[in-house]
Structure formats: structure tokens, C-alpha cells
């Protein structure tokens, strides 16, 4: 539930709302809303529907929401890892070629003996 609380806090910040603003709209106390954001309090389905409506999202959208900045970081990390993997694949191919060449050399030496 902490992850959901973080998503709710992120959405609240993006809207420029205070905890008090959201608590009033949900008709709960500020400490109660704070406990939702920190993951101390589990959110029941009706409260989840209230919160998603407040942010003009479906419950599914709220549950699966990801920070766009975080997604950019993941994409950047993925690019780096993909590039490293491609470099390693080239190294493996080069090593395979060397093994084949060495095998051929050994074979040729044995045929001359």
C-alpha cells in the first residue's frame, strides 16, 4: 500500500493541492489522509473510487499510474543495458571466431605431424 500512497502523493503534488485540500474533498481529516499517503492506512474500495474520481482517473488508472519522470529514467537505463548487451554479444562472437581459428590451427598442426 505504500506504493499506492506514493502515487497519490505524486498526483496531489502535480495538481498543486495540499493534504488539507484533498482531505476536505474526501471529507476526512488531514491525519487520516496523511496515513493513506504514507501507507499506514489500507484503502478500501469505496475510498479508492473516491480518490480516483478526485484525480479524474479510473481505479485501474490510479493503481497502474507511473511517474513520467521515473519512466524516462527506466527508458534511459534500458537503453544503457541494451547497448552493453549488444557490446557483449559482439565480444562473444569475436571469441567464438578465435576459438574456431585456434581449433583449425591445432587441426592443421596435427595433420602435418
UniProtKB/TrEMBL annotation:
PROSITE patterns: HTH_CROC1. One of its GO terms (molecular function) is DNA binding. The keyword DNA damage does not apply. It comes from the Bacteria. CDD domains: HTH_XRE. The keyword Coiled coil applies. InterPro entries: Cro/C1-type_HTH, Lambda_DNA-bd_dom_sf. Keywords: Coiled coil, DNA-binding. It holds the Pfam family HTH_31. Residues 8-62 form the HTH cro/C1-type domain. Residues 78-105 form a coiled coil. Gene3D superfamilies: lambda repressor-like DNA-binding domains (1.10.260.40). This is Helix-turn-helix transcriptional regulator. It comes from Pedobacter cryophilus. The lineage of its organism: Bacteria, Pseudomonadati, Bacteroidota, Sphingobacteriia, Sphingobacteriales.
